[in-house]
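MOLECULE: protein
FOLLOWS: sequence and fold
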Amino acid sequence: MTPVPACGIPESDKPAAPRRDFVVLVLLWLIVTAYNYAKAYHIDDTAYLEIAKWIAGHPFHPMSGILNWSGIDEPIYKTNQPHLFLYLMALWSMLFGFGEHAQHLLQAIAAMMCIVLFYRLARFFAGETAVWLTAVMILGPAFIISQNIMVDIPLLAAWLGFFNLLICGVKDENQTRRYFGASLACSAALLIKYTSLALLPILCLSLLMERRRKQYWTALVPLGALAGWSLFNYADYGAIHLLTRPIAGKSAMEPFRLFGAVILAVGGVIPIGLIDFVESDARLMRRRGIIYSTVILCLIGLVAATTAGWLSAGWSRLLLWAAFLINGTLNLACILPAARELVSRKIWKGKLTPDTAPVLYLVLWAGGTTLFYVLLSPLIAVRHVLLILPPLWLIAGYRHGKSLRGASMAFGLTMTVLLSAGLGISDWRFAEFERNEAPALMRWLPKTGTVWASGHWGWQWYTGLAGMPQVDVEKSELQAGDYLAVAELEDPQKLK
C-alpha cells in the first residue's frame, strides 16, 4: 500500500476542513467535559489542590508549604513537579473557587486545546481521516479518564502546541516565529512537568538538521525558563528544585521492567497496532471484518465470563496481560516503518527537507518519549504514556490515511468506546465513593473522639472537608476513643 507523502497532503490538494468536522470536534469536547465536569476529585488531585491552595496565599513561596503525601508532613519541594499549571489553578480559584465544577472547567479549556491541536496535526498527515483520528485519540481511556485536575492534559496541550509549530510550520516563510513559538511551548511544558526535558533535544536537533542558524538562539528560551524557575526556587527555599527532587535509584534491570510496563500500558488503551498490522497486508485486509469482529467478541466474552464467575480473576488478569503485551508490541512497532523510511532516505547525510522533517519529528516524539520514561521515570501509569499515543495515531494516519475506511475505522472507534465506557464508569464510581463515604462516616461515628483519616488521593481531600485530620505516622498521637478511617486502596499511611 502506498503511503501518503511524508509532509502529508500537498498544500494545493488540501481541502478546507469540512463543517461536519467542526461539529464533531465540538461534540468530542462536550463528551469529555461532561464526563469530567461533576466527577469527584481522584488520584493525585488532592496534592495539586493543596499546593494550589498554598500558592493562592503564598505566591512567592510556592515550595515552602507543607503536604502529607507520603505518610508524614513534608515541605512541598519534596514533590516532583514544577508549578506553572498549579499557579493557573490558584488564579482560577480566586475567581471560581476550588470546587469540582470550577476546577474541571479549567481542565476543559486544556482539553479543548488538545482536541484542536491534535486535529490540526491529523489534518496535516491524514487529510479527511483527521476527524476519525481525533475521535479515537480523545475518546480513548488514556485521555478521557486522565483529565481530573492533574497536569497530564495541560501538559499534552503544551506538547501538541510544540509539535504543531515544528511540523505544520516546516514550510513557513517566517522561521523565527515558528521556532520562537516552539521554544515558548517547550518552556511552558517544562514548567508544567519535567518530563518535557525530552523536548529539548528534539528542538535542538530540529535546528541543527534543518540548518536554521538564524534561529539557534531560540534554544536558549526554554533553558532560560528553567534557569528563572531555578532562581525562584533558590529565593523560595534555598535550593534548586530540578536538582534536588527525589529520584529513586534504579537497578540494571529496572529499565527493562519499565519498558515492559510501557508496552502493557500502551497495549491496554489503544488498538492502533492491530489496525496498522492488518492495513499493511493485502491478504489480511480482505479478512479484516472477520479479524476485528473476533477481537471484539473475545473481549466481550472475557468480560461476560469473568462477571458470571466462569473465569477466575487470576485467569482473567493473565489473559488481559497477554492481550495487552501483544497489542502493545504491535502499537510500538508502528514506529518502525516510518523510521525505516527515514533510514532509506539517509537523512543524516543532508539537510532535512519538508518531506522528511515531519515524519522524523513523529518518530522522535514516540521513540524519544518512550526512552525517557524507560530511563528516568520511577513508575509507569496510563496517564504517563498519554504523551506517546498521539504520534502513534499520527504515524498510522500518515501511512494509511488515504486508504483507511470501513471496518478498520469502525473497529478502532468501537474498541475505543468500549474500553473508555468500562474503565470510565469504574473510575467514576471509585472517585464517587471517596466523596460520599467521608461525610457519611462522620455522621455515623459517635462524637467521642477525633476521627483520623489514613489514605491519600481523593480520600485525603474529602476527609479533610469532612473534618478528619490526616494522620502523620511520626507525629500524630492517637488517643483511646479516637477512630482511624483507613482507605485500604488509596495508599494509606501505615501506623507503627
